[in-house]
Amino acid sequence: MRLRQGVAAEVLISLALVMATGTALLAAVLLQIDDDRIESLHGLLGRGFVASAHHGIVDFDQADAGHWWSVDARGAVRGINAPSGAIDDRTRALALASLGTGAPLVESGAPWEAIRFAAPEPARAGAVAGRIDAPISVALLGAVVAVDVVVFVLFGWSLMRRRVVGPLRRLVVAVRELSGSDVAASVPVEGVAEIEELASAFNEMQVALAARTGALEKAVRELRTANANLIQAREGLDRAERLAMVGSLAAGVAHEVGNPMGALLTYLELAGRDPGLGELGKRSLSKAVEQGERVRIILRQLLDFSRPPRIERGPLDLADVASRVIELVSTQHGPDAIRFELEVAEGVVPARGDLSLALQILLNLAINAVAAVRGRPTRTVRFEVAPILRRRRVGEDATRSVPLPRVDGVVCRVSDTGDGVAAEQAERIFDPFFTTKPPGEGTGLGLANARRLAEEMGGSVELEPERAALGGACFRFVLPVADEPLPSDGVRSNEPHQSRMS
Ligand code: ADP
User: Measured in angstroms, how far is the CA atom of residue 287 from the centroid of ligand 1?
Assistant: First the structure.
């Protein structure tokens, strides 16, 4: 198994190995070179000692004179300047060897080993033997080397931490932060030259990466917007195609059926003038005319749908349009049957559009709302007219105490206390001929027409379930802001925060 270790440990171990090997080699070479010289030095010393011993001038009591004994032929030891028991075996053996040969002997070794001398005593039948210990013992030498290694390791470690390991660790943290998408992470340029270079390269890479990430994010955002626009455009195209198809179909049907229908109604009217007509005949004819009128209304709606409307883009007061619609609808249903509310918010400005089309749109929404509340315990239809304030743009000062007066449009919401629109029908209700009303009651053209007319004026009609405060449906009809003020004789009814009931 491969042992995982850091750069510091790796470098320190390698250095220690190199140092130990180098020191050993050096020591071996030096010792080898000096061995002969030491030998001759020791020989010289020995001869000096022997001569001094012969002439009796050896001063055994000097502090650096070593330990001396006198050994006789039987091996009995007498201490000269050291206790007799302190003699070691090698010194005694050397003394006996010197006695045997009758010649002085010197024994020395490595610098940390003792030097031993032995020489026969001419006066007595014995030998003088001595030992001078090395100034440094093996243990002390070992301890010095150990301290040396410890100091070396500590110093090396702190150096490595400061110059190599620390910068490397910071680099690692920065890389991790970068992978955790913190694109702003950069590292201080420090440490030994190569690590400094690595840190600068890393910072350069980080800057390039941040720039590329920014560009990528921008591209993704643009792609998303383009995609959303495409989807919207495709949906719009689909709808436009559908509407165009329905429009041409409707125009054809209205034309083909409309003419004979006109003739039919004329003949019915003529027949009704016949004085010889009985009561049953009169009733039947009047019912036939009634049904015929209904067909004519449907045909007119179909023609409305297929014909591009003639639009006047004048300034109009949407609150005034709403109050006219309330007046129209409430007279048909009786004021007590349904409660109509009109709320006009502060800051409503004139809208741009065609008065008769705006009336038609709000009337359609009101008729649907009335139909939705019919038979309900609470029957309320509310009209709310409000300005659509411009959204704050990026970089615009959010702390402005006075809001910018710009208005993007005018909205009229029509909400009711009916059942509301089921979520799965929310988009389909704007499709031509979609209706949930019983046969003979709805054509499914009201909302399709309303939306088409609003779009022709640059506005929109949408379902707004999130604003349905009354619990039923809520539709919003939006028109753009007029470029010019209302004519001075125009009816203005939108005083701020005004609430009127009909
Ligand atoms: P129609 O009224 O002839 O059915 P519309 O296009 O006006 O045609 O409406 C389509 C359908 O939308 C209605 O049949 C009804 O299901 C739904 N709808 C419209 N207005 C409301 C409303 N206020 N509350 C509930 N449903 C509504």
Answer: 27
